[in-house]
């Protein structure tokens, strides 16, 4: 069945004639970029959006995958951090991020003659909390993986058969997903989160999230930013924060043994966290969505 769906995907891409791929370096977009390049050659172009929400390591790996597998990748700069609606971090923050992305990609596709813009939503994403899908619909962006019924597990299996190193790559959401809804997203917070997660990955932990929680008691000018948030106020230094660490449940015993937790806590305090905790439930997708509409019945929130 996956092989039949792969052929259906190739047929769908040929129907497009040419496509511009919204590329992130994750499991789905790498698979889509490789298949599109195999099918369409130079009539397929992968484009990755660079902003403070993209970890530097993820950008480097995404570009290296393009070089390794021979598909072209272009980097464009997006400006969601100039949008007060994004900075205020509402529950549909992803809508504003994807709107900015597609606002950049649509004129690029038109200028360079690409017939269709595609992105990596797959059949397993149906029913998830994905405000970005609304932005895709508004910009007529296609989701060929979903259209041919490819699920996440099938994409991983096909990726493995094709020799793609992303076949078993953990889920990866943008750094802004580590900030609770209603607490402002700022570049400085994301730099702290990125540095903190790098500490954990440097110790060999695979499924990693560092959730960034504002703490009470800061001076008014250092607290979570007011609403509406502006680009000017977004540059303000964040107030005291707590890091809530999530690692994979199977990795928790190692985290809690041999003084590892203490070493991590000391490193994160050097980064700027006032307090460091570990979530004993371990990493789970969308833990910041718990208790919000994003965690409604049947939904599998991302992040």
Sum up the structure in keywords.
303 residues, alpha/beta, four-stranded parallel β-sheet, three-stranded mixed β-sheet, 12 helices, 7 strands, globular
Explain how this protein is built.
By secondary structure, the protein is of the alpha/beta class. 41% of the residues lie in helices and 13% in strands. It is built from 12 helices and 7 strands. The chain has helices at 2-16, 27-40, 56-69, 84-87, 93-112, 131-138, 144-147, 152-161, 187-202, 231-234, 252-255, 260-271, and strands spanning 19-23, 44-50, 73-77, 116-118, 208-214, 241-247, 275-278. The strands form 2 sheets. The protein has a 4-stranded parallel beta sheet with strand order 3-2-1-4, sandwiched between helices. Strands 5-6-7 form a 3-stranded mixed beta sheet, covered by helices on one side. The longest helix is centred in the middle third of the chain and has 20 residues, at 93-112. The protein is globular. The two termini are 29 Å apart. The relative contact order is 0.13. The model is unreliable at 218-235 (pLDDT under 50).
Summarize the structure.
With 303 residues, the chain is of the alpha/beta class. It has helices at 2-16, 27-40, 56-69, 84-87, 93-112, 131-138, 144-147, 152-161, 187-202, 231-234, 252-255, 260-271, and strands at residues 19-23, 44-50, 73-77, 116-118, 208-214, 241-247, 275-278.
């Amino acid at each position: 069945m996956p092989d039949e769906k792969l052929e259906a995907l190739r047929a769908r891409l040929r129907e497009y004639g040419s496509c511009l791929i919204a590329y992130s370096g994750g499991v789905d977009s790498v698979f889509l970029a490789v298949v599109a390049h195999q099918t369409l050659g130079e009539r397929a172009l992968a484009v990755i959006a660079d902003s403070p929400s993209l970890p530097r390591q993820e950008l480097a790996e995404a570009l290296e995958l393009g070089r390794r597998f021979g598909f072209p990748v272009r980097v464009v700069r997006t400006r969601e951090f100039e949008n007060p609606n994004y900075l205020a971090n509402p529950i549909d923050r992803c809508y504003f991020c994807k709107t900015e992305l597609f606002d950049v990609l649509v004129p690029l596709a038109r200028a360079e003659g690409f017939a269709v813009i595609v992105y990596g939503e797959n059949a397993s994403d149906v029913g998830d909390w994905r405000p970005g899908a609304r932005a895709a619909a508004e910009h007529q962006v296609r989701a060929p993986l979903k259209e041919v019924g490819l699920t996440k597990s099938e994409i991983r299996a096909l990726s493995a058969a094709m020799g793609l190193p992303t076949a078993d790559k953990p889920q990866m959401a943008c750094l802004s997903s580590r900030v609770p809804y209603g607490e402002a997203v700022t570049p400085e917070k994301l730099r702290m989160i990125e540095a903190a997660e790098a500490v954990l990955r440097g110790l060999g932990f695979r499924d990693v999230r560092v959730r960034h929680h504002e703490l009470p008691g800061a001076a008014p000018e250092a607290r979570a930013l007011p609403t509406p948030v502006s680009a000017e106020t977004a540059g303000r230094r964040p107030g005291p924060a707590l890091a809530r660490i999530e690692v994979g449940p199977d990795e928790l015993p190692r985290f809690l043994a041999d003084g590892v937790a203490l070493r991590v806590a000391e490193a994160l305090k050097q980064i700027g966290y006032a307090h460091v905790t570990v979530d004993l439930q371990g990493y789970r997708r969308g833990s910041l969505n718990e208790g919000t509409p994003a965690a409604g019945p049947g939904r599998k929130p991302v992040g």
